[in-house]
Structures are given as C-alpha cells and as structure tokens.
From TrEMBL:
Part of the 30S ribosomal subunit. Transmembrane segments: none annotated. One of the primary rRNA binding proteins, it binds specifically to the 5'-end of 16S ribosomal RNA. It comes from the Bacteria. It comes from Ktedonobacter racemifer DSM 44963. The gene is rpsQ. This is Small ribosomal subunit protein uS17. The keyword Ribonucleoprotein applies. Keywords: Ribonucleoprotein, Ribosomal protein, RNA-binding, rRNA-binding. One of its GO terms (biological process) is translation. InterPro entries: NA-bd_OB-fold, Ribosomal_uS17, Ribosomal_uS17_bact/chlr. GO terms for cellular component: cytosolic small ribosomal subunit.
Amino acid sequence: MTERVATTSSTAAPSVRRVQKVGRVISNKMDKTIVVSVESLKKHRIYKRTYKQTKHFHVHDENNQCQIDDVVRIEETRPMSKLKRWRLVEIVKSGSGIVPVAEVLAEVDPNLTQSESSAEAEKSAE
C-alpha cells in the first residue's frame, strides 16, 4: 500500500498588505463618504528641488464619524463607487470641531444671511 502524505493547504487567501496613507479630512458633506487630502514630498528629477504634492482621495466612512480637520489613516480597497477606492481605518487625531459661523447660519436659515447683508447695505446707504 502506498502512503499519502497529508499536506495542509490553507483555504484562506494569503494576507495582502494594502497601501495605507495618512491625511486630513477636507470634506464630509456626502453620506458615508469623506474627502481626504494627502500631502507628500517629492524631489524634482532634474533640479533636485523638494516640492509638496497634494492629492485628494474619496474615502468610505461607514459610520459618518469623521469631521473636517480630523487626521485619518486610510487603506486601499476594492472599488465601492465611481470615485471611492479607499476606506477609513482609524481616526488618528480629532480636529478642533469648530465650525465656521457662516456655515451654521446657512444650515439654520439660508435667508438669514441674506437679510443681514441687505440690512447692512441699507445702513451704509443712509
């Protein structure tokens, strides 16, 4: 009789190390999507001068937990939509959470900011 050596073949796929980047959230106005700005330093191939390059990535944020100015870690993933190819891994540092007054007023009542500007125009006309 012939003996067969049992080899253990793992059914799980080998773990793929995906590209990760760290950047700052610049927009969170979409549902479950944020826009992250990633800065990198490049060196000019001829002049050897270092310059800063900024790229924007659309990132999947499942729980809508990111705010503007948060520093986040993102990871490459399968395409989730036309532009989204990255997903949120973690929030490295929370931002200040301070929202500009103009945005708060625009959310409360869009006509409020228009009536204030017209009132200022009337005062200056007098």
